[in-house]
Amino acid sequence: MRDDNGPIPLKVVVAGGFGVGKTTLVRALSEIPPLLTEEPLTAASVGVDDIAAVPGKNTTTVAMDFGRITVDDALILYLFGTPGQDRFWFMWDELARGSVGAVVLVDLRRVEDCFPAVDYCENRQLPFVVALNDFPGTTGFSAETVREALALAPDVPVVRMDARSDGSCLATIIALVEHALERTTVAG
Amino acid sequence: MTPDEPARHTGAGRRDDRVVPVYAVTGGRTRSSGRDLPVESLVLATDRWAGDLQKEHRMIIELAGRPVSLMEVGAALRVPVGVARVLVSDLADSGYLVVHAPAPAGVGGRPAAEVLNRLLAGLRAR
């Protein structure tokens, strides 16, 4: 039933703490209206068996944003905002598997909020860029300060961006793809 | 996990406007041969006549007039993506849909350089 000669889906994970701008970024770039998905609350990583047993009890609406960019006739890029709550960690694996990589959004007023996302990407060797969302009052921080604070590997790009600007969001995704490509080239 | 927690993540009224209960949509089954399909797998309708199918199946085939992901199918039908996967797998097995899985993996299961280059060119051209 699979056909590998047709259109190709790709995905990018957008991660970071609550309220850091994940939704804004996904919606800035998406050509489809925002949609919420409803997901099983329990045993989700092994399937949806429990839904049938207790209809209406075991699902919840996950405010997980996803967006779509039709790159060309046969290449479609999906952007997935990771759910913020800890109990949805199981979904990260499914989203990260086979992805291009992740954009980790950072609010410089609450840098520590991005630690779990950075740890995740490092542990899974997922290519990622750190994107400093330009909130008022944060312009004094340099990219190097953040790199040190997060103890990032030298090859991890740190970009400054504004999630409210479509062009800035696109540039951030491009930075990630360039980085992912470099990693592929180096590793291959 | 706290299943008994108040439904603060449940959008108002969403549960009520689902077309039919999930277990009815899937005929009581919650697994299928296609359960490993990634959420971004694309589905495309074939030209097989689908007028006699149940409503949810026809909705999917209509959506799949252009490539759509499992995730979009789930959101459009307001069912979990796992349920969308079952429905899509059934339709693919019966010849109503073709499923396009993600690109052949490169290093570490990541997309191959060739595909990333195409993506990069496409994004830069926007």
Automatic annotation (TrEMBL), chain A:
<comment type="similarity">
    <text>Belongs to the GPN-loop GTPase family.</text>
</comment>
<protein>
    <submittedName>
        <fullName>ATP-binding protein</fullName>
    </submittedName>
</protein>
<keyword id="KW-0547">Nucleotide-binding</keyword>
<keyword id="KW-0378">Hydrolase</keyword>
<dbReference type="Pfam" id="PF03029">
    <property type="entry name" value="ATP_bind_1"/>
</dbReference>
<keyword id="KW-0342">GTP-binding</keyword>
<dbReference type="InterPro" id="IPR052705">
    <property type="entry name" value="Gliding_Motility_GTPase"/>
</dbReference>
<dbReference type="InterPro" id="IPR004130">
    <property type="entry name" value="Gpn"/>
</dbReference>
<dbReference type="InterPro" id="IPR027417">
    <property type="entry name" value="P-loop_NTPase"/>
</dbReference>
<keyword id="KW-0067">ATP-binding</keyword>
<dbReference type="GO" id="GO:0005524">
    <property type="term" value="F:ATP binding"/>
</dbReference>
Automatic annotation (TrEMBL), chain B:
<dbReference type="InterPro" id="IPR007995">
    <property type="entry name" value="DUF742"/>
</dbReference>
<protein>
    <submittedName>
        <fullName>DUF742 domain-containing protein</fullName>
    </submittedName>
</protein>
<dbReference type="Pfam" id="PF05331">
    <property type="entry name" value="DUF742"/>
</dbReference>
